Amino acid sequence: MPSRIRGEECMARSDELLKDLGLDVDLHRRIFDAVDRNFRETVLAQKIRPARMAYFDGVVHEAHGGRVREIIERRAAGDKLIGTFCIYVPEEIVLALGAIPVALCGGTSLSIPYAEKLLPRDICPLVKSTVGLALSNTCPYSPIEDLAVGETTCDAKKKTWDLLAKNGDLYVIELPQKKGARDRDLWFEEVSQFKSRLERLTGRTLDPERLAGAVRLMNRKRRALARLNDFRKEANPPLSGLDALVVMQGALLDDAARFTQRLEALNDELEDRVRRGIGVASERAKRIMISGCPSVLGNWKLHALVESAGAIVVCDETCTGSRYYENLVEEDRSGLEARIAAIADRYLKIECSCFSPNDERIDSILRLAREHRVDGVVQYVLQYCHTYNVEAVAVAAALKDAGVPSLKVVTDYAESDTGQLRLRVDAFLEGLGR
Amino acid sequence: MRTDDVPAPDLFLGLDLGSRTTKIVELAAGAVVGFEVFDTTHDSIEQVRARLDRRDYVRAAATGYGRFLMNAHLDCRVVTEITACALGTRFVRPQAGLVIDIGGQDSKVILLGNGSGAFADFEMNDRCAAGTGRFLEVMARLLGFGIEEFGRAACEGGEMITLSSMCTVFAESEVISLLAAGRDRASIALGLHGSIADRVYPLAARFDVNGEVVMAGGVALNPCLVDLLSQRLGRPVVVPEHPQIVTAIGAALAASCCVPL
């Protein structure tokens, strides 16, 4: 995969490939030229970036190019592409069966009108953007996807899966709503059934040793992401919140082994930068945690806004942040069933607001706020995401008790509210500046 | 000694570039010595530049939606209207604990901090014009009232006709239906004011307030809304003498360097 941005040739320019896949090339250009411009004006416009971020820029750059081509090659060799929409899908099982997990969540507002042909307007932009990419015939993964894996984390998704199941192969994992003993049993059962479904799809039997290998790989990947985030605890972090987000977005898209190697190399560079005292923030920059909804590929809106206002995002308590890399799968279990149970245990520790109660999430936010020495927390709620929106009340109260100021912003992918968001963020930072 | 030899006190300017009106406040020796309010036009920079050129001032600070535009073209500081409104409110009402600022296209509720004059917390309305000055303007015109008489007329309403929508567009068709049904326009006006109060009340009620509740912004000149908010909150809502320039006063204070920014 090329590791640098080549001039004007960006994400939108793989016309040959897109044409071969039968996509709407003109519409693709219209949507992804805008995504590219956004990427250039936010991420690439930053100064003093680590040199090894170039690889991760390349992951974004090749999302609709090189990455698709290599997946086409692997499919020709018999491997399967698994589209996912949530970090609850156990990647270890997918990888152990030689399949390729790729997150297909949409982060652009421009595909949303194509979803609204089918879906109501008042559901979250992430679901609409995702569905819009599929329905507008602009997602290069749709034609080569062997199985899409949905899950029951919210009502909009559940009912969307019902609609989409009519168009193609879609498997839905049921997530429990609580974390009691019965729920654990249900979840273990669901993970086991998912394994069986993938075995049928791939025509392969899950081998305990290959599963152990996939667990080790994913643990290594999560440790590398955790180490990256440790550098964000530094007094003057060696990378911006935007760059950390780009790495996280890549984690959900790129080949796990290659990604991990490149990330470890980036971590070495960051360690060196810390040793030499090279940071990206000004002395006065306020340290901000973003907590709540994910910012998936194409969505750099809030991070760019916060950092262009002079602050630095030092922690993401989101699905494109700590929820993805915290907690490892226990490695020293033997036997297939025990290994699957260890995987199920790890995934059930993810603290999504779809669980009731979800007090562990508040404990994690307070812990991360201490570890990253944050000056304030911005609670990020995608419009119509009821669970994060309502849970924000309890999170704000807990933060207040802990003496950490917080600001909730509810927004979608459109630029129309930039002025109001800017005012809120600027005022919040002024309040921290006293 | 001739009076000419006494140097004039340093002059600081606060510019509040709102979506509907622009406010300029002159501050000298810790007192407001002049102010101007005029409609914001498409050529905001020239409007303000012409007025600035006439004055001999030390420093200006801009706030409001046009703050970055000013900052890009004129030599001035930038401060958010949240901080500016808090500073201005504390300046005109030292006992203030909370300020409700309903502007042309948004409404804010700001909890003031202890002592320094900066804010402790704030809440804002959603992104649309519901419950803002713009909503009042549209509805006043629809009912045939001037904006200045709208609040007074609403106070005369015999009953409060409940309106189901706060959306400027939907409320407009609802009001037209009520007029067509022969309902009293003062009572409709009272109902419209009631729906704004219902919208602002929960924002204000989220805070524990120590001190006066103050209302700032042009909409504070509307006596009906002030009364309704006082009733809802169960305490008097205090309106300073020139509520529409409170935020510009705060910007002038920020320009005078008395606050760390």
Identify the notable features of this structure and list them briefly.
heterodimer, A: 434 residues, alpha/beta, 4-stranded parallel β-sheet, 18 helices, 8 strands, 51% helix, B: 261 residues, Nucleotidyltransferase, domain 5, 2 domains, 5-stranded mixed β-sheet, 22% strand, globular
Written description of the protein model:
- The complex is a heterodimer of chains A (434) and B (261).
- Chain A has 434 residues and is of the alpha/beta class.
- Chain A has one domain.
- Chain A is built from 18 helices and eight strands.
- In chain A, the strands form two sheets. A four-stranded parallel β-sheet of chain A has the order 2-1-3-4, with helices on both faces. A four-stranded parallel β-sheet of chain A has the order 6-5-7-8, sandwiched between helices.
- In chain A, strand 7, helix 17 and strand 8 form a beta-alpha-beta unit.
- In chain A, helix 3 packs across helix 11 and helix 9 packs across helix 15.
- Chain A is globular and about 60 Å long.
- Chain A starts with 14 loop residues before the first helix and ends with a helix.
- Chain B is built from nine helices and ten strands.
- In chain B, the strands form two sheets. A five-stranded mixed β-sheet of chain B has the order 3-2-1-4-5.
- In chain B, a hairpin with a 2-residue loop joins strand 2 and strand 3.
- The radius of gyration of chain B is 19 Å and the shape is globular.
- Classes of the chains: A alpha/beta (434), B alpha/beta (261).
- At the A-B interface, helix 18 of A face helix 3 and strand 8 of B.
